[in-house]
């Protein structure tokens, strides 16, 4: 991978990391947006979108409520997109990309936790505060978040690029295992996210109805 | 009967409306986008709220550095709300500051807003609107739409409510000041989360079959067998969401690592 591509992915990772909590929250950090954007830089937007969609289903159950810790989905999506770009095509590559993205998201969550502890030293005051001091503290915290997310993305992309040189084309057996792995994880996640967002008998009935109707349509479409 | 104090506050408010113009309003809105910029475990969004209010406070206490510093210091105290709904608090606080309302009352008001703004925002945005928009976008992708249409459609749909809420919140907060709670109580937004529950659950159910069929096709199993596997698994996820959610992700990470390592051995 060219150094300029690393740099672009790191900058994208920084921006989407910032979007996740610190600035705007317009949801460009969501995997279905960040992954294809990264994929576009790497020339594989469609494949990256697949990784983004699967990562989205896995991460949706996490709610950023209060001080809850949740995946840093932006850098995770960029890393997953980089994985599908550098690994040989197939379901195995997709499973590795999504699993790798989840791991990066989790590591990102840990780095956000450290960042928040550091922010306590920057912007917690007692008594009067000069406006300039507040502004500098606040903006340094945001810049720190950008650097954190960009660094995480750069390291993740470097790791997956290194790993790709070691991974060969998948066998038929591996493809089947990867498909089953994804099928199990995603099916379980669909149930989990429904319960997390909308519990109750009526919600459960709506979920079952939606699933049955959709099954009929998709089976009919073949 | 209007008290002298209230009358004076109202007059000051009218003056303030004239003094705090459109530019300050735009500044408040733009700065509110960074309300979580310095989120920390001690004051949460406290510094973010003070940072958003800075243009108004600087204007009000122009030439009086000591009062300005004291006012800024007060606003860096603990505060937390849903980031989109924080504009309601920011607008109302800006109004109360311009009306020169007692510091103690402003602090009480701020603390009283934390619960309602947090609960409403979390239920409406994080638990309903965001997943609804995302799942709808995923369905559009499975229906064959190009990736850029899916991403753009999601961003557009989601952000209509997002920016609408921010602008509405700032306006309502500014117009109502400390009476903003009354507007929140009568707002139709309170009922919206419940109204979105059923559509969200239905869309969530509708996403499962295509994702299972498209992924499961790689295993070479018949579509009917895939569906009959996926649906009971979803029921298990619904039954034990916390444990199963963690296990599903952990299993995928471990499985993917094994696959990567296996590929490494083969190569």
Order of helices and strands of chain B: HHHHHHHHHHH
* Helix/strand class of chain B: mainly alpha
Low-pLDDT runs of chain A: none
Helix content of chain A: over 70%
Give the total of beta strands of chain B.
Answer: 0
Q: Number of helix segments of chain A?
A: 8
Radius of gyration of chain B: 25 Å
Average pLDDT taken over every residue of chain B: 90
Give the terminus-to-terminus CA distance of chain A. 39 Å
Q: What series of H and E elements makes up the topology of chain A? A: HHHHHHHH
> How large is the radius of gyration of chain A?
20 Å
Alpha-carbon distance between the termini of chain B? 86 Å
Q: Average pLDDT value of chain A?
A: 95
Shape of chain A: globular
Quaternary structure classification = heterodimer
* Fraction of residues in β-strands of chain A: under 5%
Major sheet of chain B? none
Q: Your description of this structure?
A:
The complex is a heterodimer of chains A (222) and B (267). Chain A is mostly helical. In chain A, 78% of the residues lie in helices and 0% in strands. In chain A, α3 (45-59) packs across α5 (91-123), α4 packs parallel to α6 (131-164) and α5 (91-123) packs antiparallel against α6 (131-164). Chain B is elongated, with a radius of gyration of 25 Å. The termini of chain B are far apart. Residues 11-15 of chain B have low confidence and may be disordered. At the A-B interface, α2, α3, α5, α6 and α7 of A face α3, α4, α6, α7 and α9 of B.
